[in-house]
Amino acid sequence: MKKKIEKMISVAIVSLQKNKQWSVFDLPHISVERPKSLTHGDWMTNIAMVLAKKLKKNPLEIAGELVEELQKNDDTLITEISVAAPGYINFTLDASLYSKTIKEINDTGDAYGRGHILEGKTVCVEYTQPNPFKPFHIGHLMSNTIGESIVRLISAQGARVVRVNYQGDIGPHVAKALWAMRRDDISLDDAELIGKAYATGHAAYESDPQAKKEIDVLNKAIYTGDDENLMVLYRQGRETTLAAFEKIYALLGTTFDDSFFESNVWERGRAIVKENTGTIFEESDGAVIFSGEKYDLHTRVFITSNGLPTYEAKELGLALTKEEKIPADLYLIITAVEQEQYFRVVTKAIELIMPSLIGRIEHISHGMMQLMTGKMSSRSGNVVTGESLIKDAQKLAGEKLSDRVATDISTVTIDAIAVAGIKFSILKQSLGKNIAYDQDVALSFDGDSGPYIQYTYARCHSILSSAQEQGFSDDFDENELIGDLERLLERFTEVLMQAMKMRAPHMVAQYILELAQEFNTYYAKIRILDESDHRSYRIALVRATAHVLKNGLDVLGIKAPERM
Questions:
Q1: What per-residue confidence (pLDDT) applies to 61?
Q2: In 460-482, which positions are buried (b, 16+ CB within 10 angstroms) versus exposed (e)?
Q3: Which domains does the chain carry?
Q4: CA dist., res. 103 & res. 541, Å (int)
């Protein structure tokens, strides 16, 4: 319909020029968008304001002349074309279109909203990236939530998506943890204690020169692997922390297709840097650097003066390894905004080494999650872990449900509500913004939260169950007066498409929140199952709303319980 209206406008402009009402000029870009307010019709254009300078007329006058010309079109799906100040033109569609949409949603069910524009494409998405021996902090929780949603948005357009995780299982942070684990005889079966050992080791590294020397020695020993006693400790600590991460992934609903580790790519990365030293890289004070200033970037070290690869060098080994193992049209990497400048340098180096990857690497950065205590760091002992945040949310969700529901609620439902509260708090904001997480707001059943949308879905399901028990059908022929709920439902497919293109899960989050609010307004006004000529249509509308709410939540990686 958007393209059809754009074509109608261009034909109308040409017609006005041919009739000599308007001067002749090249057609400008014609923008047709959804109006912000549902009361302003289904589509709108600002073309009259764009043409004001060309025609030296008031936009309202131009809009009036265009509407007069547009009304000569006999498209029966457009029932009204009107002018709104300061010169917008609004288009209202026929009610029959919405009847077709309601039936299409209910016929398509869980697949409704999916598209095909990426069919035949493969996209590799790297996200979460927690490091063994360190806590899974809430920054990782944020990366996982955003990454999983972007994966689902891309998959919804027909692409084959490969989920991958990249984890730093070698390097100074591991040496710091092992130093403290060996000194304090830390249990190797407790991931939380291992994470605290890292914080202890980091503090010692910063404050104790002798500890710093010992940790540096350990770091080199991990790379060589010659100290078998150390490597046994290393392997056991690595296994414990990775197993702890897997439990969190299961709760969050993420299953990775492949995992990459620094221990498997560092040698290749260092070799690549050495092979290209003198051309892409250069020596400086015993280290090997990439002079980013040549490309309006900044300079970074890729091999230290003691011969060890930095994160940057490992990133080169990772990029080429991923490209060989997972041939893809696009490689997405999702991290916090703190790494944005780092990735610009690394990506430039990768593209110089392997020109075939130019334009196929995309870094998506997001803001930070903050609590009342401000920014958190795993280098200090007061890190807030993702696991502790989830446990707190589970406890509060259970308490809230026990106040609302007399019968027992399963732990599966409690977990789903807790995760929804956290994920929606993250996803309702645009990616560049920091998140101020408030657990009471996140777990609210009445505000702009994930549980509120889940509860609305459960309400829809309850109505549909009652309709089924009473033998009421949702097979309708007639059509009610169309309202805002139908107009919102019709936009779902379009929202998914735009959210994928813009890498903007918040567009889906805001859409389904508005849909839930609109449905609850409808529910408060309309007695859906009462004896009425429109009962079948109303039941069909509830079913369509349930489908879209569930599909929207699914794209965000949030489950939709049928009972709450």
A1: 95
A2: bbebbeebeeeeeebebeeebeb
A3: 2-93 (3.30.1360.70), 127-262+327-370 (3.40.50.620), 386-555 (1.10.730.10)
A4: 9
Q: How confident is the model at residue 204 (pLDDT cuts 50, 70, 90)?
A: very high
Mean pLDDT calculated for residue range 472-495:
88
Give pLDDT tens digits for 281-328: 999 999 999 999 999 999 999 999 989 899 999 999 999 999 999 999
Cα separation, 414 vs 397, whole angstroms: 6
- 359: its two tokens: 């334009």
Q: Distance of alpha carbon 319 from its chain centroid, rounded?
A: 22
Angle between helix 450-469 and helix 505-525 axes, rounded to 10 deg: 50
Cβ atoms within 10 Å, residue 38: 17
DSSP string, 377-423: -TTSTT--BHHHHHHHHHHHHHHHHHHH-SS---HHHHHHHHHHHHH
Mean pLDDT in residue range 494-512: 97
Q: Which helix (H) or strand (E) holds 300?
A: strand 300-303
Cβ proximity of 46 and 31 under 8 Å: yes
CB 36 within 8 A of CB 51: no
- Annotate 465-493 with DSSP letters as a single string: HHHHHTT------S-PPP-HHHHHHTTHH
- Check whether 496 has a pLDDT greater than 50: yes
Q: Report which DSSP code applies to 359.
A: T
pTM above 0.85, yes or no: yes
Alpha-carbon distance of 212 to 200, in angstroms, equals 12
